[in-house]
Design a protein that fits this description.
alpha/beta
């Protein structure tokens, strides 16, 4: 079925006569165009508006000193970087082809140079009834009422309709006191600002009569309040991010409980970043709890241990939960004896151990990052450069998950002991523990034990996703910016980041002598009878966990529900439940599928939402565009390697494009291109 998408572009070029009148006032004009939004995304469409301006100029084409197209011009953070880099030394003015938002933004940014509107803003439709601000659901301070004819040329780029409390078009009301609005004394009078700007630029006063309009539309207070709220939330802590419904209440108060022993454990030999571990056992071997069954094979690799005692019944490929592929696994049949490997012994003298000895214990224990990345911890704690700060990630910003939260509440002393071990290894005096404000019990528990450690500071953070991403957390807590990948890493800023669950595992390994064969996960979502936070043996089948928490046979469950390893946003959907828990499993989230089938093919309409929420300040719409066209190499030009795969863009995408899938393909292509 052919679907015709309406073009919701918010502006059009002024009539030729008006464009000529504007250009007659200038000698050399630099033109900035917005790449348009709310229309089908066709990258090769060209900039027909600027071409038309040149046609209007004709022989006077030399008046155009240059041209720059900026996608989503009203995005202050990203657009300011591009405009500030322009060489405007030979220009006497700037012309802007955009809706009123972009024109006002440019006028504010280049204060001191006249800015002219070359386009008029368009309302949603001819009878559009919404409040002022359809264009103005903006995260910046500018607003646009889309009134259909732009007079910003006459007012120095300051819109009187959206900035004046009375929307006066013909000058001030006369009620201003000390330059403040008589309606709201905390706000500058818009017309005083207009006259001051015109005077500073030596432009003529706005004396031309502007016909009054019909302002009988409803108040725009609601839109203004929403815009203010969005700006406040979006700007907190770090650029971008989203505020999804948390859905944490079902498990926030549930204490950690031990999950029943699996009858059969499926323990993958690659559950870490880097090279797969080399198997140390064969079919028929009998193993004990904590026995090493896979040896780290290379520097970036990790050892694997049995989580149960019993007999190895197979070493074969099984469906892997972290990727749509099969991986080699050791399958062990539980003998029910739960015998510990004799090498597992507590260490009373761990305080006296050297940095090298501690690192060796962590390496032999197979500890990896438990926040989901699964990077070998002994490698992370051996940075090639000196570091001065340890950041502890207690954010757990993914919806539904509470495993880290409960660890902080129930085991703060153990986490802080693991912290001190890592602090000793790194030789740092500064430790910042970031915990989001939606975890007050965790903050209180950690603060109580941290009082005796003057180098440790517990920082309460405004709740926001994806605050737990390393680069976002480093920027939020230290103000430092990690250089872009593939070469830039956190230690380049003098920082190492560790998750609270990883620190708990470090404590278990060093103090209790327990290698990493179990971890705490959250099982939550819809339709579950026993959601909770469980201490689960690595290798426990996903089917066993869902059956236990669902309370019924799970055959056919995936027809109605999605089961994700991880949280709702970054979680990896499971094609079946034949896989098992790995070291990087933070939880299992069960969410009901949409009751209505949705189209797989939808076009990007350039709404700009993905750009506004990307914490890495990227333009994710290009990843979907080039991914659909199969031009994976083009995504590298748009810095796809800097993407942290947080999923904010896909979460908010109006067209429901599978952006994460395209991003992962493009990053894999980029990695293979680097190796080649």
């Amino acid at each position: 079925m052919q679907v015709n998408l309406m073009d919701y572009t918010k502006f059009r070029l002024k009539p030729d006569r008006e464009v000529r009148e504007v250009l007659e006032q200038t000698n050399r004009m630099f033109v900035v165009s917005c790449g348009k939004c709310y229309k089908t995304f066709e990258r090769e469409e060209g900039d027909e508006q600027y071409s038309h301006v040149l046609e209007v100029l004709g022989e006077d084409g030399s008046k155009a000193a240059g041209h720059l197209t900026i996608d989503f011009l009203c995005n202050e953070v990203l657009s300011e970087k591009k405009i500030s880099g322009l060489d405007l030394s030979g220009c006497d003015s700037i012309g802007v082809i955009s809706c009123g938002l972009g024109i006002q933004f440019v006028a504010r940014l280049v204060d001191g140079m006249p800015v002219y509107a070359l386009a008029d803003s368009l309302p949603h439709s001819l009878n559009y009834p919404a409040e002022v601000g359809y264009h103005g659901i903006s995260l910046e301070e500018e607003k646009c009422a889309a009134c259909g004819q732009c007079y910003l040329n006459l007012t120095g780029g300051i819109c009187p309709i959206t900035n004046c409390a009375k929307a006066l078009l013909n000058g001030p009301c006369g009620g201003a006191t000390a330059g403040k609005c008589e309606v709201n004394s905390s706000v500058d009078c818009a017309w005083v600002r207009i006259y001051e700007r015109l005077e500073s630029r030596r432009e003529p006063s706005a004396s031309e009569y502007v016909p009054p309009r019909d302002h009988s539309r409803p108040s725009w207070k609601l839109e203004n309040d929403l815009s203010l709220q969005n700006r406040m939330l979006r700007g907190e802590g770090f650029y971008g991010g989203v505020h999804p419904l948390e859905h944490k209440e079902a498990t926030a108060d549930r204490r950690i409980e031990s999950f029943p022993e699996p009858r059969t454990a499926i323990i993958f030999l690659c559950q870490h970043a880097g090279k797969r571990a080399r198997p140390l056992v064969e079919v028929g071997y009998r193993v004990k709890v904590g026995q090493k069954i896979g040896e780290a094979d290379g520097f970036v690799s990790a050892s694997i241990h049995s989580s149960i005692s019993g007999k190895v019944v197979a070493i074969e490929e099984r469906p892997y939960p972290a990727a749509p592929t099969n991986e080699l696994a050791v399958v062990i049949e539980n003998d029910g004896k739960n015998e510990l490997d004799p090498g597992i012994q507590p260490r009373e003298d761990f305080d006296e151990l050297s940095k090298e000895a501690l690192l060796e214990i962590i390496k032999q224990s197979g500890i990896v990052g438990l926040g989901g990345a699964m990077f070998p911890t002994h490698v992370k704690l051996s940075p090639p450069k000196p570091v001065d700060t340890l950041l502890v990630n207690g954010c757990e910003c993914e919806p539904y998950l509470n495993a880290d939260n409960r660890l902080m509440i129930e085991h703060p002393q153990e986490i802080l002991a693991g912290l001190r071990i890592v602090q000793k290894i790194l030789g740092v005096d500064r430790v910042l523990v970031g915990v989001e404000e939606n975890k007050p019990e965790a903050i209180a528990a950690l603060s109580g034990f941290a009082e005796s450690s003057p180098s440790v500071e517990i920082v309460c953070l405004k709740t926001k996703y994806p605050q737990g991403a390393e680069r976002a957390l480093i920027k939020r807590l230290t103000g430092r910016v990690v250089p872009p990948p593939p070469r830039g890493l956190p230690f380049d800023t003098g920082v190492i980041v560790s998750n609270v669950a990883t620190l708990f595992a470090v404590y278990q390994a060093v103090v209790k002598g327990l290698p990493l064969f179990q971890r705490v996960i959250t099982v939550s979502g819809e339709g579950l009878t026993r959601p909770g936070n469980y201490l689960v043996k690595i290798g426990t089948p996903i089917r066993d966990i869902i059956e236990h928490c669902y309370g019924n046979n799970v055959d056919g469950l995936l027809e109605e529900y999605d089961v994700k390893m991880g949280g709702q946003i970054m979680g990896i959907p499971q094609a079946n439940m034949d896989s098992s828990v790995v070291k990087g499993t933070t939880g299992l989230t069960v969410v009901r599928k949409y009751p209505v089938a949705v189209s797989e093919e939808r076009d990007c309409i350039k709404c700009g939402r993905c750009v506004e929420v990307c914490p890495m300040q990227l333009y994710p719409l290009f990843y979907g565009y080039y991914g659909k066209k199969g031009e994976l190499a083009r995504a590298i030009e748009h810095k796809v390697e800097e993407c942290v795969e947080c999923g904010c863009c896909e979460f908010i995408c109006a067209a429901k494009i599978a952006l994460l899938s395209f991003i992962r393909q493009e990053k894999a292509y980029a990695r293979s291109a680097d190796k080649a």
